[in-house]
Recover the amino acids of this structure.
């Protein structure tokens, strides 16, 4: 594509995103929804083709406000990545689709993801996840029960691999990155962070009484990309609680290889307006 500085301060890159079979397992309500983790991967891949000095493994100010619903018959998602240069040499990146309203001549533009990349710099010092003893557990939920009753995605997205441990101050679980065909990319396996979001969702169902969906975060730093077929652990700490939205910091790591990712200020929101409720057995005050 060339260097970003050669093509101006703003640019749009057409995208044709293959609808691989595993994406059909990412269902929310009645719709198949393009995952936020895949949106980040698509934007990171497009951004590094424009700007050689960009650190696409450091993402900030992410917003995922509008679902990108995948048509049941679609073999590809036709979209574009919109980029805008920032004063410090970074990029604001957006994943956008256009919809032509039949018979009206009107084109509607919808933004599905927005985030910010920064130039390469010294790697930040990443804090270690908190250490929690086995005794500090209020509840433990097996993966089979999580995906049967709490996060009912299809098999491709059932990647929490050990019972999730819950307490009012944390959630922790093991994650297995599946060997599923995926385009890959600079941010590693998209399934690992997606499963960490599931753990945050379960915590919210127990202690806040709503089903949360990731709608943004403050900062994501990928120290080492996660890989298919590998095992990881996630640990998250609730930072703030609200009536319809919770805030978390989370880590993805292994005991032998250290930290792979740190994500701060993860916003998990009830996007249904209270129409969907957790089952009574998971709620702390049922």
């Amino acid at each position: 594509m060339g260097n970003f500085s050669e093509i101006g301060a703003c640019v749009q890159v057409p995208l044709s995103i293959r609808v691989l079979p595993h994406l059909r397992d990412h269902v929310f309500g009645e719709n198949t929804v393009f995952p936020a983790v895949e949106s980040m991967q698509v934007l990171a891949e497009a951004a590094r083709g424009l700007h050689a000095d960009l650190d696409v493994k450091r993402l900030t100010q992410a917003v995922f406000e509008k679902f990108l619903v995948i048509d049941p018959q679609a073999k590809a998602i036709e979209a574009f990545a919109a980029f805008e240069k920032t004063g410090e040499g970074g990029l604001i990146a957006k994943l956008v689709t256009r919809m032509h309203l039949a018979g009206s001549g009107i084109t509607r533009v919808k933004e599905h993801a927005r985030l910010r990349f920064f130039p390469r710099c010294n790697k930040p010092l990443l804090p270690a996840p908190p250490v929690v003893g086995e005794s500090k557990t209020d509840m433990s939920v097996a993966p089979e029960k999580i995906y049967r009753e709490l996060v009912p995605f299809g098999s491709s997205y059932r990647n929490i691999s050990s019972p999730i441990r819950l307490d009012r101050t944390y959630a922790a679980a093991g994650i297995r990155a599946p060997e599923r065909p995926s385009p890959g990319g600079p941010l590693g396996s998209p399934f690992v962070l997606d499963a960490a979001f599931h753990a945050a969702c379960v915590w919210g169902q127990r202690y806040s009484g709503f089903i949360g969906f990731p709608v943004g975060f403050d900062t994501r730093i990928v120290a080492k990309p996660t890989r298919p077929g590998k095992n990881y652990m996630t640990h998250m700490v609730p930072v703030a609680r609200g009536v319809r939205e919770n805030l978390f910091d989370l880590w993805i790591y292994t005991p032998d290889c250290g930290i792979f990712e740190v994500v701060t200020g993860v916003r998990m929101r009830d996007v249904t307006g209270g129409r969907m409720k957790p089952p009574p057995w998971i709620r702390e005050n049922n």
In short: The first helix runs from residue 36 to 48.
